[in-house]
Amino acid sequence: MSKNDNKITEGKRQSACLPRKRFYRARAHSNPLSDSHFPIPFSPADTDYSQHYPNFVHSNLKIQFADIGCGFGGLLIKLSPLFPNTLMLGMELRDKVSEYVKERILALRSSNLGQYENISVVRTNSMKYLPNYFGKAQLSKMFFLFPDPHFKEKNHRRRVISIPLLDEYAYVLDVGGIIYTITDVEELGDWMKHCLETHPLFATITDEELSVDPVFELLACATEEGQKVARNGGQTFHAVYRRIAFVE
Amino acid sequence: MEEEILTEETRREADAAPALISIHPLQKSIALALGSEVRIFDLEKENAVTLTDEACSPSHSDAIRAICFGANGSLFASAGDDKLVKVWRTDTWHCIKTVHSDKRVSAVAISLDGLFVTFADKFGIVWIERLEEDGQGQISVGTKAVPLLGHYCSIITSLKFSPDGRFIATADRDFKIRITVFPKCLPKGAHEIQSFCLGHTDFVSCLAFIHLPDFRQSLLLSGSGDATVRLWDHVSGCLLDTCDIGKQAGLLKSNEIIKDFPAVTDINAFPDGSLVAVVIQGFHGVVILKCDVSSRSIFVAKIVSMEENFTPTSLVLSSSANMLWMVMGATNVSKSGSSELARLLVISNVDKYVSNEQGDCPVILEDKNIPGGEKLLLKLQGSVHLAKQDAAFTAAAAAVKVAMQNLLAKKQYSVEKRDLRKRNRNDRKFKK
Ligand SMILES: C[S@@+](CC[C@H](N)C(=O)[O-])C[C@H]1O[C@@H](n2cnc3c(N)ncnc32)[C@H](O)[C@@H]1O
């Protein structure tokens, strides 16, 4: 990443600290999902991904990695060269943040010809519309890095990891696919682990297996949030689980 | 002032629940729900039924939002805004179970084996509770159900079991239909999603399964605010056909204008799909479709328009009697005082009518020819001679319109109002 790029990151990050209201602007155009303010595909077949991945138009590839709540996109950018032939999509709720990721990717593509062509981002609420983007068993990896903690108990159902939402993650994940979670909030770490542990469609991955997974070491350091935690010397808590087949 | 806006909205939402109708699979009895009242008529004995309950269990005290018979007809369930789910035996019409939900209930279904009741609450969670009477026929009161599955923060509008019992289908206001494998081990919940049936471009209001007579194949029908009825292979989630009611209706009967973008609000089908009847929001009549399971297609067969004031809120087809029952009504039509009234119309020989054997006019039964006759009308409508109450029904028609709009349309808030609501959200209040 160039110095220049870093600066943009810093600038954007500051604006991201402002109250969320700033991001909350009514759009002039009407959109199909009336209670949200961004267009949502009606079904996975409904999206034209050629605009997202122009270099892969003729490849017939499907998106296989999803970074949920991708923030400023640090993970996608690290993963891109590691899996150059895998399509990856970041999902981000905040308009400006997703716009920023989009620009960041375009900038990287133009300064590194032929690279970063396999990553893209959409602005969406993944908790509501995941099945509108991905079909059954389409994904092989899902990432949940440093998600919002929602401390209060009555807000736990807003957490991005919960038993009902894990049903949907299990649906879009292929058997054998992996769900990666990490947080610096111990309570949330316990929660995510507990949900995954309890859920009948996920099984734990041993530390030995993790130690040879090239992706695992990125969890704590690839994203902006992870770097912040690391700078402050914070602890992190991960839970990595595999989608297993359904047996009665 | 801020308070006012909010309370006004809540009140409007609580207002005007549409009347619902359901029929025993063998047409042994017919049920109508209006407000907090369940009205049952026994079609075999031809008499009105009085429901009985345990002294200690609460009765419905607010709008009933969902009713259904179990697959073999031995059980009936009712549920709604009072957060109660009540299950009744249909031989004695005694309540065998009252389940307390934490939230208002929006949909209810009885499992195919009759062993469980499932219901959806306003948070989009589907709950399940075992139905069993203990040795003395004593009823467990105040039991709590366990969560089965959830649609994230969306209201579930319909809940149905597939005819083979393998799946449970749930539809929501975010255009989604989810097909979940109904598990053998229930306390663990239903986590394996078989498919999502996606394609509707507005809320999904109603679901109906149909199947080939030998059960080898079943398909799913759905109605939506996008003015279509769609046919799905629910096992794969594939959309097989889309019937654009607005368009097709226009072609069939150009003089009969179904306005704007008519939402489909209720659907009911013969088990084999040969006839499918749908309610269109605000339309004084019904639309009858035909579904061909083998060619996997669905199309409009008839548009039945009825007297100006009859805009049905719910309908049911009885295959054994070849009849279409339609009800219109809504509660809390307070000003006009017609809150107790529902209006019932019955079309007989539906299949002949649809195949044009009787000319182009539906046979709408006269009151005295309706099964159960005036006795039935007295019980279900609340009055026999409704013709004299035209004014009341004009008011009711207006109320029904409001009821359906409130029920189904997502609220459109102005920017200012939205900010106001955000500021007033309970969970934000404590933060300052
Ligand atoms: C604390 S940040 C972490 C961002 C990034 N994963 C990282 O590690 O730097 C959580 C992000 O999730 C996003 N988010 C929260 N809820 C979301 C949802 N329902 N759908 C998509 N993104 C969401 C937020 O906007 C925020 O950018």
Automatic annotation (TrEMBL), chain A:
Q: Where does S-adenosyl-L-methionine bind?
A: 69, 92-93, 125-126, 145, 223-225
Please name the pathway: tRNA modification; N(7)-methylguanine-tRNA biosynthesis
Q: Give the main location.
A: nucleus
Please provide the record's keywords in A-Z order: Methyltransferase, Nucleus, RNA-binding, S-adenosyl-L-methionine, Transferase, tRNA processing, tRNA-binding
* GO CC terms of this entry: nucleus; tRNA methyltransferase complex
Compartments, as annotated in UniProt: Nucleus
The UniProt entry, under InterPro entries, shows: SAM-dependent_MTases_sf, Trm8_euk, tRNA_(Gua-N-7)_MeTrfase_Trmb
Molecular function GO labels: tRNA (guanine(46)-N7)-methyltransferase activity; tRNA binding
Q: Recorded E.C. number(s)?
A: 2.1.1.33
Q: Which superkingdom, per the lineage?
A: Eukaryota
- Family of the protein in this entry: Belongs to the class I-like SAM-binding methyltransferase superfamily. TrmB family.
NCBIfam families named among the record's database cross-references: tRNA (guanosine(46)-N7)-methyltransferase TrmB
Name of the molecule in the record: tRNA (guanine-N(7)-)-methyltransferase
Q: Which organism is it from?
A: Platanthera zijinensis
From TrEMBL, chain B:
Q: Where are the WD repeats?
A: 57-98, 197-233
Which GO biological process entries does UniProt record here? tRNA (guanine-N7)-methylation
Q: Where in the cell is it found?
A: Nucleus
Question: SUPFAM superfamilies, from UniProt?
Answer: WD40 repeat-like
UniProt keyword annotations, A-Z: Nucleus, Repeat, tRNA processing, WD repeat
Gene Ontology terms: cellular component: cytosol; nucleus; tRNA methyltransferase complex
Which pathway does the UniProt entry assign to this protein? tRNA modification; N(7)-methylguanine-tRNA biosynthesis
What Pfam families does the record tag this protein with? WD40 (PF00400)
- What function is annotated for this protein? Required for the formation of N(7)-methylguanine at position 46 (m7G46) in tRNA. In the complex, it is required to stabilize and induce conformational changes of the catalytic subunit.
| Family per similarity comment | Belongs to the WD repeat TRM82 family.
The subunit structure is:
Forms a heterodimer with the catalytic subunit.
Q: Which PANTHER family match?
A: TRNA (GUANINE-N(7)-)-METHYLTRANSFERASE NON-CATALYTIC SUBUNIT WDR4 (PTHR16288:SF0), WD40 REPEAT PROTEIN 4 (PTHR16288)
The entry's protein name is: tRNA (guanine-N(7)-)-methyltransferase non-catalytic subunit
